[in-house]
Amino acid sequence: MFWRRREGPTDPLEAAVEPIAVVRPRRERSGMGLRARPSGLGARLRSILSAGSPATAATWDDVEEALIGADVGAATTLELVDAARERFRAAGGRSGDDVRRALATEIRDRLERIGSGRFELGDAPSVILFVGVNGTGKTTSLAKLAHRLSAEGHTLALAAADTFRAAAVEQLRIWGEQLGVPVIAQRAGADPGAVAFDAIVAAQARNLDVVLVDTAGRLQNKQQLMDELAKIRRVIERRLPGQPRHVLLVLDATTGQNGLMQAEAFSREVGVTGIILTKLDGTAKGGIVLAVAERLGVPIIFAGVGEEIDALAPFDPEAFVEWLFAE
Amino acid sequence: MFESLSARLQGISERLRGKARITEADLEVALREIRLALLEADVNFRVVKDFVARVRERAVGSDLLTGLNPGQQIVKIVHEELVAVLGGARHHLSLAAKPSVLMMVGLQGSGKTTTAAKLAVRLRRDGKKPLLVAADVYRPAAVDQLVQLGDQIGVEVHTRPVGTPALEVARSGLEEARQRDVDVMILDTAGRLHVDEAMMDELVRIVGAVTPAETLLIVDAMTGQEAVRVADAFHAKLPVTGLVLTKMDGDARGGAALSIRAATGLPIAFLGTGERTDGLEAFHPDRLAQRILGMGDILSFVERVQENVDQAEAERVAQRMMENRFTLEDFRSQLNQIKKMGPIGQLLGMIPGAGQMAGAAQEAVDSGQMKRIEAIIDSMTPEERRRPEIIKASRRRRIALGSGSSTAEVNRLLKQFVEMQRMMKKFSGGKMPRMGGGLGALLGR
Question: Do A256 and B202 touch (CB under 8 A)?
Fold first, then answer.
């Protein structure tokens, strides 16, 4: 349960947003919480760091291994563990429990320092650009954020600027219908910058608060596709100086060390302002975000925690770390 | 940021220079680098442990071979061990029954639908009649996606109205496959989490209903440490017969393949590269080993060339070059052949050391230079293509207008072409290398 529960009255759209797939077997979920998987990092760490037992050199080795097993990456793991060990010594730590506390504080502080979990829309119309490699869940995350924002009372437009992948426009259209939000689209193969432009013009004409721009997935080593993305950004900037307010990189929690290269490349080309970490309802812990936060200083803004439309939550470093270490 | 293993071991080589044997202390330093390199390549940490232990065993006290420095020698041992784990892993589809069912399973976003279309293209190329069945009834527009891909590649797609359960779609798909005399039914399913019991049970029921001859687990090459757990879970529930590793055109090392192979013993059937429907490659253990170690992939390049170059056409063009009759028409046909091989950057990326060039070449193509050349040639009359010397000022203006370029660009192309012809004349003393020089040499003919 590492995000903040949505507060306030019941979502007026709830009834309208039954899952698309009516035949999908509904899963049970206790509240809105992430389910800790027995085989996850938490269980491993818990057995390593059983409270009271004195911490030894082997304890730290095991902690390292657990972090690497969570995709934190070798280099970042060593840094984190060194810093945590420093903290542990300074606090006069002795037990496995102290190790755990030192590490948790270290990770949480680093995530908080860079502003993880903070999300403000700013002046209307606010443009949010969704970017990422193929198959990380850009369109789904966009729909979830649209749901959240419209539940908060914002007016929206969705821009179907993934004009490349077969049926991507249809996918966004279906979400738009479900959410009761206008979708600005052109034909498949159209210039994605032009779609973004149209959406902004439409938003201005209708006085809408937010434009969410979906883009085609692209591998970060394809320079021509990255150039295309930079162009979409320029089109938005030219029409609305100061926008896009947010460039959100959608990162799949099951991604390994390549996630860092993704974050580097997308940051370089389009100036990523934050990360949406998706698919946290599996067994993956998404540890690569710690490397991304550490190396690039890009905050994690939202977490995707399930297939339901409301399964997107503001990222809460404190709760994330707790979940990371939970049983 | 991610150095290749050979680069990492370079420093160790320096230290070991002049020594006749690798000592244990030297080895520990090298093994640490190997461990880090494998972890950076996303090989599961448990697999890394076992693997490094095996390398240690082999390397301790091994005599240094002449011609290889100690670093290279360790790389060689690591490479051989990698091939040993990956090897024997090459999987050939067994689709003898008619119709055979080929089922795609995997996590969300791993590339099942795209791979289904690629497999259809490949099977048809091998003389089979495929049918695609769209049983991803959950993701919005997933069925549309497969239908559009089917249209693109000219393969029938079996669909059912929205709301039909996946099991029902699979059953009626098999029915249609039987009626239409289809060889292979490719069943696309929805992405699902391995821990989602209800969804996993759905797959179990589908397997029960259509008894797939092959069940392929589709895995994203970028997958990290979780790959083992995911593969284990799918493998435990379903009769998975092989793996497809997708998005191999990215820059992930693909260590997940090693993890899954070591942990489950599942063989690797194909590698997915690129979003084009022809981007599916046969798996070669040695090449993947090189990739995990950060080396290039020259063999895939040669194979791609062989698969796509029309040999007869190449010979015809070569003949014309020899006889000094090379025209703009022949040049145009060469450009076409190169294009057929796929994105040029991807091709060059397979050659060790050509990484930089790959970007530049791809840019040349993307910035439209290649297209412009084609447009200019296409705007000429057949007579002009055969005898470019007749192209004078007024023809140049017409060609420039027709191709949306400038007369300066037309001039440049013509000048380059004359230069090319001049070069060919030099070679045509009988020592002319075949078709474009480089290609012939690469093909070893």
Answer: no
